[in-house]
Amino acid sequence: MSRILKTGAGWRLGWDAAAPEFKGLVGGEDWAIELTEQEWNDFRRLSEQLHETLQQIAQELMDEERIACELESDRIWLEVEGFPNAYSLRLILQTGRRAEGYWENALELREALCTIEGF
Asked: Which segments cross the bilayer (predicted)?
C-alpha cells in the first residue's frame, strides 16, 4: 500500500510513496502542508526527539510546571510546549515554500506518526 491517510481530533497525516515530490502530508482540521520525503523524515525524527526529551525532563518537573523545547534542521523547526503527557506542537517549514502549522494536543498525532509503515 503506497498511500496512507490517518486522522484524529485536530490532526491529519498522510504518506504517498508513489508521489514524485511531496510524499508526506501534515495538517489540522482546516489546513494541510505537503512535505518532501526529507522534510517528512525530519518531522518524524525531530518530533520523536522532542517527545523523548519531555519524557526525560518529566522527573524534574513539578506537576503544574510547563515546559517548552525546540529542535530544528535545515528544513523544519519544531517546538513542543506543555506537559510531558499533554503538549502542543508547532511546525515551521524553512524551505522555499515557507509554511507553519500548529496542533493543540500533539500526543495522539505523535503516536499515529510512529505507526505509518515504512519508517
From this structure: none
> Which residue ranges make up each domain of the chain?
3-113
57, pLDDT greater than 70: yes
CATH label, 3-113, candidates 3.40.47.10, 2.30.31.10, 3.50.50.60, 2.40.160.20: 2.30.31.10
**Phi-psi category of 9—alpha, beta or left, where left has phi over 0 and alpha has psi -120 to 50?**
beta
Paired strand residues for 80:
69, 89
The residues near 79 (Cβ < 8 Å, ≥ 6 apart) are 50, 68, 69, 70, 89, 90
Q: Name the helix (H) or strand (E) containing 26.
A: strand 24-27
Query: pLDDT per residue over 71-97, tens digit each?
Result: 999 999 999 999 888 899 999 999 888
